[in-house]
Every structure is written in structure tokens, then in C-alpha cells.
């Protein structure tokens, strides 16, 4: 029997998100092997969004996590995380929400990103007024141009300010180079190394001016195997925990296994050569072109030719052999937003489902 085949699939409604527990555990182990130790990992929870998977990482020694939202930070704390970095610059009501979260989980260090002096001043004022300290990382723009302070003549001024305030604790730098995604590892590594040169110069300036050596959290999944070679860098892969078709094809040096699939059923055969499945935009991430959404593991000679909200239309070669009600198992091209489409996931262990996990992190708000 193929590894993904579930013995009680007839009990599962579709479309459904499947999490293969043994494979998740193995992917976590491989992440730690690449990093050299669990201590070096700030695993990004935006991919999985489930407290149970955070707990699985904690069981293997990972205690630090990165996330994208306050809700994801809360599920990490719920699971037992000790240090959680929200990889956004928090503004407006989110500053107050972080204060509430810090009070709710006083044993957890919650940090966020800063790249702007005005925001730094607001954090210092608001946290101080509440008798708390704002834990921060200076977000550095190393070329992606999505967020972060440019590596220019002013960045040291912001570093000094963050280091000097009574109600701000600066832990270090956050450097995200997610724009570098060359398929060839050596080419990708060369681009990543080139982009890190100015970061190294900045680190030298920091130490030359008498500051302690800062923590540096760098990269995501594509850069993981490059930054892991820098012994003093903390790495923050995320997709590795579940893996997907997109990175599986591009990042050949990374040894991870597919651990999250979408289960769908054939619901119609409207004309010869065409089948329809119950997997529309709401069941699999649809931000990419239609040929980069799902790869079916138990179907060959097919083409996804159309999707609406609840339907996927597939052109198939062996139309006669397929029947309405047949189950298809597919690997998402982009697993992170696919997980975000589901309220719960079926958990597969020994090719059988006996429990479900709530995808709590897909919510914008849990308790604060």
C-alpha cells in the first residue's frame, strides 16, 4: 500500500487536510540535523498553525519559534514555547495586543521586529507605561525590499536608540532573504552569501562601537541550508515541517518528506475525458497559476484545467477507469496558505485516522 493511502478514508469528509504524523516527526529531526542542534532553530509556525505540531517540535528540543501573527504567537505559547518572535513590525492595536499576550503568558518571551524610529519610540513609551519591556529585533532589509531598515548610514543610529532605551530590550538582527530562490544550490548559496556581505559589515560596526555581539536570525526555508553553514546564525525554516511540491522540486538538497496532503473526491464526470473533484479555491492555495496548485499522487496523465470556489475540473486520459466517489490524494504546491484554508486537519498515523487537530493559528484572534 502506498504511504499516503488511508485505511479508513471512507470515514473522512472531503475536501480535507491530512497531516502525516510520522513524517512530521521525521522532518523535524532532519531540520535539527541540518542546523546541527535544536538550539539554532527559530522554526516558523506560519506553515503548520497547530499547537500539536509545535509540541512535537518542543519534544525534540526546539524551544524558539517565529510566527507572522499574534494568534500564531499565542498557539506557540499554548504549546509551551519559551521564546516567540513575531516577524512583523507591530503598529496600532497590535502593540496593546502584544502587551495583553505578554501578561497572559509571563513565562514566555515575546519579541517583535522594529525598523522605524517612530515605532521604536511608541514601543518604549507604551510598554514602559504598562511596566513591561518590549523585546525586539532590528529588522534589516538585505535586498528583498519587503520590510526592514536599509543597510545605510542611518541604521546604526536606530541600533543605538534601541540599545539605549530602558523599556526596550534589543536582542539582535532579523535578516530575511526570501527573494533568493535559485534551484541550483551552489547558485542560491552564492547569491545568499553575496547578500550577507553588508550584514557582516554591519555586525563588525556594531562590535567596533562597543556593543555586545547580537543574535542574528536569518533566512527562511530556501536559505536554510546556506545559513546553517554559518555557525553563529539562528535559522528559521518553516515549510520543512510539512514540505510541499513547490519547494520539493526547487530545493533538491533539502531531504524533507511530504507530510501534508489534500484529500478530495471525484464528484462528477460531466463529459468524456473530464472529471470534477470537490477541491476548489477554498481547498487548496490558488495564488499561483493553475498548473501550480496540486499534484495528485494517485492519478497520472491529467491536467487541472479549471477551478471555482468548490469545484476543480480535471482533464484525464484514463477516464473510463475512474468513477464518481474515488478518492484522490494531492500534494499542495504551496502548503502554508493551503493549511490556512482549513479549520481542522485529519491526523494520519500508521495509515489510519483516529483524531483531528484544530488549525487554531488560522484565526486572526484567539484570546487577545
TrEMBL record:
GO terms for molecular function: D-serine ammonia-lyase activity. It comes from Emticicia agri. Residues 259-349 form the D-serine dehydratase-like domain. The keyword Ribonucleoprotein does not apply. The keyword Amino-acid biosynthesis does not apply. Belongs to the DSD1 family. InterPro entries: Ala_racemase_N, D-amino_acid_metab_enzyme, D-ser_dehydrat-like_dom, D-ser_dehydrat-like_sf, PLP-binding_barrel. This is D-TA family PLP-dependent enzyme. Keywords: Lyase. One of its GO terms (biological process) is D-serine catabolic process.
Amino acid at each position: 500500500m502506498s504511504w499516503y493511502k488511508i485505511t479508513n478514508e471512507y470515514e473522512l469528509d472531503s475536501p480535507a487536510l491530512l497531516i502525516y504524523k510520522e513524517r512530521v516527526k521525521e522532518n523535524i529531526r532532519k531540520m535539527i540535523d541540518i542546523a546541527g542542534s535544536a538550539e539554532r532553530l527559530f522554526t516558523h509556525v506560519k506553515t503548520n498553525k497547530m499547537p500539536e505540531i509545535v509540541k512535537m517540535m518542543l519534544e525534540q528540543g526546539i524551544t524558539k519559534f517565529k510566527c507572522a501573527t499574534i494568534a500564531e504567537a499565542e498557539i506557540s505559547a499554548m504549546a509551551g514555547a519559551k521564546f516567540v518572535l513575531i516577524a512583523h513590525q507591530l503598529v496600532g492595536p497590535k502593540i496593546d495586543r502584544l502587551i495583553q499576550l505578554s501578561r497572559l503568558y509571563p513565562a514566555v518571551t515575546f519579541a517583535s521586529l522594529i525598523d522605524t524610529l517612530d515605532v521604536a519610540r511608541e514601543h518604549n513609551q507604551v510598554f514602559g507605561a504598562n511596566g513591561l519591556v518590549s523585546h525586539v529585533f532590528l529588522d534589516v532589509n538585505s535586498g528583498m525590499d519587503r520590510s526592514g531598515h536599509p543597510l545605510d548610514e542611518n541604521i546604526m543610529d536606530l541600533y543605538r536608540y534601541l540599545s539605549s532605551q530602558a523599556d526596550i530590550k534589543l536582542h539582535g538582527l532579523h535578516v530575511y532573504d526570501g527573494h533568493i530562490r535559485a534551484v541550483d544550490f551552489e547558485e542560491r548559496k552564492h547569491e545568499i552569501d553575496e547578500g550577507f556581505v553588508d550584514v557582516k559589515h554591519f555586525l563588525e560596526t556594531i562590535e567596533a562601537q562597543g556593543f555586545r555581539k547580537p543574535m542574528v536570525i536569518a533566512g527562511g526555508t530556501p536559505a536554510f541550508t546556506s545559513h546553517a553553514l554559518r555557525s553563529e546564525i539562528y535559522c528559521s525554516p518553516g515549510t520543512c515541517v510539512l514540505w510541499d511540491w513547490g519547494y520539493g522540486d526547487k530545493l533538491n538538497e533539502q531531504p524533507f518528506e511530504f507530510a501534508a496532503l489534500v484529500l478530495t473526491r471525484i464528484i462528477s464526470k460531466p463529459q468524456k475525458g473530464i472529471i470534477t473533484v470537490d477541491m476548489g479555491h477554498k481547498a487548496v492555495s490558488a495564488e499561483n497559476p493553475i498548473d501550480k496548485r496540486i499534484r495528485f499522487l494517485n492519478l497520472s496523465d491529467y491536467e487541472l484545467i479549471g477551478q471555482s470556489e468548490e469545484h476543480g475540473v480535471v482533464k484525464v486520459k484514463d477516464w473510463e477507469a475512474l468513477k464518481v466517489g474515488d478518492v484522490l490524494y494531492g500534494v499542495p504546491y504551496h502548503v502554508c496558505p493551503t493549511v490556512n484554508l482549513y479549520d481542522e486537519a485529519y491526523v494520519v498515523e500508521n495509515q489510519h485516522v483516529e483524531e483531528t487537530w484544530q488549525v487554531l493559528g488560522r484565526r486572526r484572534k484567539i484570546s487577545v
